[in-house]
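Weekly modeling sync, notes
Attendees: AB, CL, MP (scribe)

Item 1: holo prediction request
CL wants a bound-state model with pyridoxal-5'-phosphate before deciding which constructs to order. AB pointed out that an apo prediction alone won't tell us much about the pocket. Agreed to run with the ligand included and paste results into these notes for async review.

Input as submitted:
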Amino acid sequence: MKDRKLLMIPGPIEFTPEVLRAMGMATTSHMAPNFIEVFGQALERLRQVFLCPSGQPFVIAGSGTLAMDITAANLVERGDKALVVNTGYFSDRFAAILERYGATVTQVRAPAIGDAPALEEIEATLKTDSYKLMAVTHVDTSTAVGVDVKGLAALGRQYGALVVVDGVCAVAGEEMRQEEWGIDLALTASQKAIGVPPGLALVVAGPRAMDAFRQRKTAVSNYYADWTQWLPIMEGCESRQPRYFGTPPVNLIWALNVSLGQILDEGMEARFARHRRLSEAFKAAVTALGLRQVPVSPDKTATTMTAPYYPAGVDSKVLKHIEEAGVILAGGLHPAIKDRYFRIGHMGAVSASDILATVGAIETGLARAGYGFEAGVGLAAAQEVLRSA
Ligand SMILES: *Cc1c(COP(=O)(O)O)cnc(C)c1O
């Protein structure tokens, strides 16, 4: 198709033909046995993808922000203390949502944009008070900062806080072992590394999160988000019993089940390794082209996306040139540096060819924007990594 462009933004991503075909199937009743079978299977597969065998999955129509809202609505009661490990735009959002449900929020902020708070600083804060919940953004999509979720979760556990991970730009791309790492709740949205068109809020709550919900003294103040309504639906689907609360997005759930099947066919370990390798190749290209990245160091950097600064003399107009060369990228999002950098998502079914096509289009765009560099240097650097694997 001559007008086809590659969508390489941090969600929505490129979806597989099988997933897109499921979107186009004739919609059945949300109570039909064949649909309940698929919904039940998708819930079982979610546990495997989140690596959380004792988790309770929730699949609810909405975006990632609804998954955050559902989490706060069900786990927070007025006056609860919450700690937010703040790495950028989406951590700010989580803090605002937690406050909306009555939490008193303490934020530990990264020392600089592109950095993450040190574990020692988080521990020092956890020592000062009794926090019911600690919220962590696995990959902050505004900066491409990836945090040490394993280390943070261990700390949260040690000090008795429920560990909540916003994995919207991470789950099924970034390594995350929910149960083994002691994460009490992880959430994502369909359109990112899970690889399904936008429209599903996905949450897996571990036993401690479900206990905290059951021990609430006050009712959940959001009607739609209330697990009291959704738990019987999810349990019903898993025992293949149709039940109704709100009409589920039938086609999206078919598509979800197809994508989760593809993810599990690849295997979680292979999937984590592929994301690491492709990320390394892409970042090598960016560096070879002379572009600095927003994350301050490689150990603070996501593998699902990359956020390079524009080089001197280049601005956001280069994105138009890159699009003309066939690849759609995203501009900046973090308000403090919005016009100084751009973002590339490389997650889900992304392949080595996608990486090379993207680097090629970036080279073409940079050349058209008048930036001086040795032609092909980015492609060579990416190839070097891809070949050695
Ligand atoms: C995209 C994203 C969200 C918000 O998801 P929506 O589907 O846009 O509501 C939240 N957190 C992170 C880390 C994200 O990347």
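Recorded for review: The chain has two domains: 6-11+267-388, 17-266.
Action items: CL to compare against the apo run; MP to circulate these notes.
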